[in-house]
Sequence to fold (383 residues):
Amino acid sequence: MDKRRWRLHRQVAGFAALIAMCCIFIYSHGFDKAVNWLAMWQLETTGVNVDTEQGSGEDFNQDNFEEEVNLPNPSATFLAVGDVMMHDGQIWAGYDKTTDTFDYSEFFHIVKDEITAADIAMANLETTLAGKEQKYTGYPMFNSPDELADALKDAGFDIIVTSNNHSLDRGAKGALRTIQVLKERGLVPLGTYESEEERETILIKEANGITFAFLSYTYGTNGIPIPKDKPYLVNLMDEEVILEDLKKAKSLADVVVVYLHFGEEYQRTPSKAQRKLAHLLLKEGAHFIVASHPHVIQPGEWMEVEEADGEIVKKYVAYSMGNFISAQRFPYTEEGLMVKFTLEKDLKKNKVYLKDVEEIDTWVDKFVRDGKMRYVVRYGKKP
Fold:
């Protein structure tokens, strides 16, 4: 009896080991190779030939097997915020006289986790980074220390919009240096460019198997002309140009995101012109639009669009996300929105859908510490 039990245990153990080896081999080499390997192993150890041909074609089809596996649809999140402004008080709030250095990490330390949690995060930079020799100033001609870019990177932003009405506050030289400073820190500028070739290259980002294309335009540059020898420097809002860019972007990515710097300052509802352009771009292929410039929040809007295949899909436009951070004290200018978009890719249709839009309220807390005004972005509405 003991010998019989021992033989039984040995057979069971051997069978279990065989199953484990097969599982490992299938995982690493595929089903067909595993079947052939098993046949060879069986022949060598027992002299019995396992027929790998009969029944394998009819009973099992690897392609069909893979198709029948219900893989989960991938999803990704994109987060956008409004204007990152730098008035005089903000510039010197980050200055340390003892070390002659600047540090703006305190601006975003409370909301940092929300930003970094997004797969892709974007902010509008409403200032230039033209260098100390160009003098640091706030309104009306902005130029800020490079350390602001460090703070944006540390906060978790990936893309920085640079096409707005303050893009040329320090001329072409300042705009080009701003691009370079952002790139040096691993941030991607959007809407201003160093060359015509760069302007013609659509910005593409990938997150969880979903590809995003990004476009950005501004209504103007406060009357400062774009240099004639650098027409590519700042993306201006030209309907024909935008539609052409949109067509190209659609062919390159699953999702097209458009940023618009437009609208009337301090107006809390979008104008007819804003709505007309936004609706056009959504109909022509943009999945959603984010925007700022009014310095106050404007209500967003869902829109149903019939696509070329006849399917009706939901899209969204955030007409103005307000100020993310600033020193403005006009009514409602101390409030902003972080807008988080959740997208899902239907693998069977090979198509991406906007599943959810969450608007997260923020406000700028201004307080005195160590004899200086401090600025911190906090969650919620201003008390």
Notes: The first strand starts at residue 75 and ends at 84.
